[in-house]
Design brief:
Blueprint: H1 18-21, E1 42-50, E2 54-61, E3 68-75, H2 80-93, E4 102-107, E5 114-119, H3 126-129, H4 135-154, E6 157-158, E7 167-170, E8 175-178, E9 185-186, H5 205-208, H6 217-231, H7 243-254, H8 256-265, H9 272-278, H10 300-309, H11 320-324
Antiparallel strand pairs: 1-2, 2-3, 3-5, 4-5, 6-9, 7-8
């Protein structure tokens, strides 16, 4: 008899049943009815960003006694379901720590284009801000980001697009907000999810090898990529030119042995093209990334946290709760 293999579970280590245990309305966004506000209450000031699914503007709410600043996210034509999902998730998470606050939803009377109105954050572009941060600043902001992730995970929601562009920091007020919940999804155990989520440099190995039964731990990989980029001053940390190359870049650091062990454990196979591109790589020690330029940030504690996040096997990555308890 061959030794009994440990049965592999395809469910999250934590918060697996949050959505299962809540009333169906909690995650049933398809039947959400939206009460639209008055578009005339808001005026666009200037464009601050654009994404695949929206254009983002700084605006003012002129409806009150004193005009207040806000962020206006004008959605591009996209399935109504996707908009409802984003709104439902934002409403479920409203008031959570460091979660961007949705203030209103309006529709253009002519084009019928919907816009989401958010609280204003005076963000500094990460390419400008991150190089100026001290070791203590980084510890502080990573903790603030973890609070947001732990909250959304505890509420049964995966963000699925954690990256610097979606983390707004007002450094003068030491305020952080996790934004853009457009790809976020309700987690249900044993449910297959779309692997076409997250941005390339932050995609977990599970997405790159087409493993659909992923969970909140996807966000923890993305966080690990962010932290590694900041402490090693290498942005982005895994710089792939396409999804196939992305896995190659990861394998050059974490090695191919552990990748194949991971694939074996979950009964996954690479497609032949991926396999030929991969080659064979030994694991690169984290110390190889430490330079005189980054050694004040790449402390043993910081490296230990990165090491516990950037693991092929999503089930062995730290959870958001465990990461909050990490000495870093």
């Amino acid at each position: 008899m061959p030794p009994q293999q440990e049965a592999v579970t395809h469910r999250s280590k934590i918060y697996a049943d949050v959505c299962v245990d809540k009333e169906p309305e909690y995650s049933d966004y398809e039947h959400l009815s939206i009460s639209w506000g008055e578009q005339d209450h808001y005026e666009v000031v200037r464009k601050v960003g654009r994404g695949k699914y929206s254009e983002v503007f700084e605006g003012v709410n002129v409806s009150g006694e004193t005009p207040t600043r806000c962020i206006i996210k004008i959605l591009k034509p996209v399935k109504k379901k996707k908009i409802l999902r984003e709104v439902k998730i934002l409403k479920n998470l409203q008031g959570g720590p460091n979660i961007i606050s949705l203030m209103d939803m309006v529709k253009d009377p002519h084009s019928r284009t919907p816009s989401l109105i958010f609280e204003y954050v005076d963000n500094t572009d990460f390419k400008v801000l991150y190089p100026t941060l001290t070791d203590l600043d980084i510890r502080f902001y990573i903790r603030e980001l973890l609070k947001a992730l732990h909250y959304c995970h505890s509420m049964g929601i995966m963000h699925r697009d954690v990256k610097p562009h979606n983390v707004m920091i007002d450094h003068s007020r030491r305020q952080l907000r996790l934004i853009d919940w457009g790809l976020a999804e309700f987690y249900f155990p044993e449910r297959e999810f779309n692997v076409r989520v997250a941005s390339r440099y932050f995609k977990g190995p599970e997405l790159l090898v087409d493993y659909q039964l992923y969970d909140y731990s996807l966000d923890m990989w993305s966080l690990g990529c962010m932290l590694a980029a900041i402490i090693f001053r290498k942005e982005p940390f895994f710089f792939g030119h396409d999804n196939y190359d992305q896995l190659v870049k990861i394998a050059r650091v974490l090695g191919t042995d552990d990748l194949y062990a991971y694939l074996d454990k979950y009964g996954l196979e690479l497609d032949p093209q991926q396999e030929s591109l991969l080659g064979s790589h030994t694991r690169k020690p984290w110390s190889k990334f430490v330079t005189p330029d980054n050694q004040h940030l790449a402390t043993p504690e910081a490296i230990d946290l990165v090491d516990r996040l950037l693991r092929y096997d999503h089930q062995t990555r730290l959870t958001s709760k465990e990461a909050l308890e990490h000495p870093y």
